[in-house]
Amino acid sequence: MNSAFSDVEDHSQDTSRICDAWVLGAAQWILWNGQQLFKLVNWREELGTSSALVERHRDENGNPIPKKHCWDDWKRGFEQVVSSGAYGEECVNITYILMSMFACGIQYQAELHREIAELREKQKESSKTERTETDNDY
Length: 138
Prior knowledge:
The chain is mostly helical. The chain has one domain. Helix content is 78%, strand content 0%. It has 6 helices and no strands.
């Protein structure tokens, strides 16, 4: 995944088909694994991700978990694919679809965070009401 957009990897001598393959491989990886990784990266507190897991940045199977800045780097890499004009039509189309999914995921995340905050607030209010009623019973 990182090899597709990393400054460390030099793809300047690769043919356009090879460059497309790097990007398509990265897009496929995101499509297969992205949802779970997106949750682990962005909802660590809500998911109860262990602090040891966060510190090591590896999941329970030992696979690396990217930090949020990785998502940002990948997103910028995909944006460059669409805007550069250096990639094939299929590669750009799939990348555009993936970017649309990123945008939907971010919107969904914001909505879900709002819903979680509302539920927590209702739970707090409910707990206060129960305590008040219990206190009044005595």
